[in-house]
Amino acid sequence: MDWTTREDTPTGDFPVVGDGSVRLADDRPMWLVECRDIANRPCVVTVLVDGDRVVIVGPPGETAVFSSSEVETLRNALREAASAAARHDTALVAGRQR
Question: Which contiguous run of DSSP H or E holds residue 93?
Fold first, then answer.
């Protein structure tokens, strides 16, 4: 399921970009990965980039359960977030060397 096309998504007013992420107000990318909790209720795991770090926010007080396709979506989100974090880290290092 693609969170970027469903009308009842938590993406709200966030603009969706080409890699499936949405942009926060401060232009940081954020990925919303659909999953289920242990009681099989739909929920979302959020992956975002905070400078040179990747942050994973799970459902509050819940366990996230992923189908194989949802794991693939999570893997892709983590790969993209890690790449964005690495670019930020590289820019910081380059700025320090000047």
Answer: helix 68-96
Angstrom distances, CA of residue 14 to CA of 10, 26, 35, 98: 9, 11, 20, 35
23-37: pLDDT as tens digits: 777 778 889 899 999
Measure Cα distances from 95 to 4, 9, 47, 82 in Å.
35, 38, 26, 20
Q: pTM for the complete prediction? A: 0.67
pLDDT class of 16 with cuts at 50, 70, 90: very low
Strands 22-23 and 53-57: unpaired
Q: Show the tokens assigned to 63.
A: 């366990």
d(CA 92, CA 20): 26
For the chain, the structural domain boundaries read 22-96
Please say whether the beta carbons of 44 and 32 come within 8 A: yes
Residue 14: partners with Cβ closer than 8 Å, 6 or more residues away: 22, 23, 24, 30
